Amino acid sequence: MLDKIVMQTRLAVAAAKMDEPLAKIENQVVAGSFAFSRAIKEAAWAVIAECKLVSPAKGTLCNTYTVLELAQIYAGNGATAVSVHTNTAFDGHINDIVKVKAAVKLPVLCKEFIIDEYQLYTARAAGADAVLLIAAIVSDAELVRFLQIARELGMDCLVEVHTLAELIRVQQTDARLIGINNRDLQTFTTTISQTFTLLKHCEPDRVIISESGIKNGEDAQKLKTAGVKGILVGESLVIASDVAAMTRELALSGSK
């Protein structure tokens, strides 16, 4: 599934470059101020709340709210930052970031499958404060280059790892924000034990975020106690009967 999404993304980026060349995008970019990492570091406990309407594995997750409505709920109930999917596999669009940035004051993470520097420029042009970089789909050289370009654009990078081998690779770069994804990319099952396993190998100067499989405040507390700085949660929020209450539960549980 990941390979399929990456292939589709390569085709989409190639088409976008034809429609709107990089030189044109660069003229629309105003450098950011690293608001995402600042918000994470200043928070006692960070909740990155994700506007996730569709999952490639599970189909439609939420048809009650729009991306914008979810972002507004998150902002009003204790979230530290908002994550916005821009890949079509998740029914996302780059313009969703524009809408969210215009409506809420929280920093925004562009959740995308970054395989080309073009995407970094389009993310920043839309107003993204940070981008997700997935170690599993980029080479070491690409990772270093993307980190450098993002830094020049005033954007943070949350670098996602799934395995110890990926963690070792990422810690050979200057990436400060590392996301441990609890999803097995082969089976798509999730367990937060993956964070506990990899956390033992994380260098102390890295800021660690646990991603996927966090179901409630109890999970949040366990992760906070283990030493992570925060969590990125999408599905458990958008399928909750009360999204606002679940946002508050995750935010408050981790701060106890």
UniProtKB/TrEMBL annotation:
One of its GO terms (molecular function) is phosphoribosylanthranilate isomerase activity. GO terms for biological process: L-tryptophan biosynthetic process. Pathway: Amino-acid biosynthesis; L-tryptophan biosynthesis; L-tryptophan from chorismate: step 4/5. Keywords: Amino-acid biosynthesis, Aromatic amino acid biosynthesis, Decarboxylase, Lyase, Tryptophan biosynthesis. It holds the Pfam family IGPS. The keyword Amino-acid biosynthesis applies. Residues 2-250 form the Indole-3-glycerol phosphate synthase domain. The keyword Lipid biosynthesis does not apply. It is an enzyme of class 4 (lyase). InterPro entries: Aldolase_TIM (IPR013785), Indole-3-glycerol_P_synth (IPR045186), Indole-3-glycerol_P_synth_dom (IPR013798), RibuloseP-bd_barrel (IPR011060). Its EC number is 4.1.1.48. It catalyses: 1-(2-carboxyphenylamino)-1-deoxy-D-ribulose 5-phosphate + H(+) = (1S,2R)-1-C-(indol-3-yl)glycerol 3-phosphate + CO2 + H2O. Signal peptide: none annotated. Belongs to the TrpC family. This is indole-3-glycerol-phosphate synthase. It comes from Sporomusa ovata. The lineage of its organism: Bacteria, Bacillati, Bacillota, Negativicutes, Selenomonadales.
